[in-house]
Amino acid sequence: MLAATDQGVWKTTNDGDTWTQLFYPGFEVTALSLDLTDIMLAGTRGKGVYKSTDEGITWSLSNAGLLGFHIRSIVINELNHIFLGTFDYGVFMATDFGASWSHINYGLGNWAVNSLSIDKNGYLYASTNSGIYKSISSTTSVIDNFDSPNKFSLFQNYPNPFNPTTTIRFFIPFVETGSERSFGHALSLHTTLKIFDLLGREIATLVNETKFPGTYEISFDATKLFPKGSILTSGVYYYQLRSGDFAETKKMVLIR
């Protein structure tokens, strides 16, 4: 039996009657796990992940590809794929016994992950500061389903044409500039989402605030965003996303 403590990893061989210190990296050990090949993984507060392949006798850092070094949770699925929950960079995955890590935060609206779990069907759950998220596909199916785009995306509204409501979805990727970071989160960006008519006149502002990395869905109702008595007629309109230095515009059609 192993225990993660602020004084490192401790081990007992007599059901907890006595304990011996197995490993102390100089930082609090916040998560422990043993993969299907008996590799030990220890997540720390501030130093990332340590790995042992000899039952804890020796340990080495295993942080290739890792951005967040405050590890809060380690879980492993039946394919021996390892998932890390970090304090401010979301979720990472390794398929090579923890040798290298990939960011899999697409759709995760809050990157301050408190804990992870995997259900019997292989779905990954992340408990964050803003609620619980579930992976859109099983971790034991095709790994490519964990898409982690590294660029801004503005998607086509749906339905389109619409009457009178439609949904606009956009994705803000991880961006970090110098030391600009918010506690518990990746860098936020001032973001606007606006509607324009064919003449370029602004019809409505749907978003005007800072947004953290993640996927957002915004509803637009053509009957509710205008002064009483105003009518938004059928025709072509444009919606424009601006976030940081990014800007993109797409067309949508209202049919009344």
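the 2nd protein, sequnce then structure:
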Amino acid sequence: MKHTLSYALYAFFLPLLPWLKRQAHHVRRDALRLPDAIGQAEPPSNGAPYFLHLGESTVTGVGVEHIHDGFTAQLAQQLQQRHQQSIAWQHYGITGITANGLLKKLSENDAALPALSEQPPALLIITLGVNDTTGMTSNRRWQTALEALVQRVANEQTHVVFTQIPPMHAFPALPSPLNWFLGLRAWQLDQQLRQACARHGWQYLAMTGALEPQWMAADGYHPNAQGYRRWAEDAAARLHWSPSSDSPVPSNTTNDRAAL
């Protein structure tokens, strides 16, 4: 009911469309564009279990200088401390990419993830949604792309995790009312993501704290090193996966909740 009623809120934004378009133009023109982080993960040894992180600019480490200060490497470090064993990781992200765009890139370039030719990841984490929000991806196209991505990369033994689409109304870089318009659409796509996770048995991982101003990079759009570290600490504590397990740990995929 709440999800259905959210679409009625677009009536409020209709008179504001010219203003929203101007704000979006100004944000695109004036936004500080930070580079991807430098560095790469070490490829996993043959046959060794590893976790793979796919997605958009937070996967490429925008907001920090080196990839080892980004979310993926920080999560690997947290998991190693928790489980007292080495954990190999890989990441593949493209700044500005949508879910369907990422699927197309992976389908066109088998060499993008050489580890996949050896074996699927034991843990797959997917972080997408900001660019699908700004691109106004339809609900159906969004869910279809998510399902196809998992089918492309995972197998039945892979523990699949989707991170929450961040509440974009809280992005310091977005002026009002554009932030509320995009925040609404992000929330709607996130509801679709929750439903997909519940339907397929994937784990949904809510974000907490990483969008506080002190944890944001200079662009007001991405976490800084402290933000990525706090996000990784929180994710590691709530991740229903153990590197020593032969199969995913059963989980309640919708127990993490974040309000708009």
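The mean pLDDT is 88. The longest strand covers residues 50-55.
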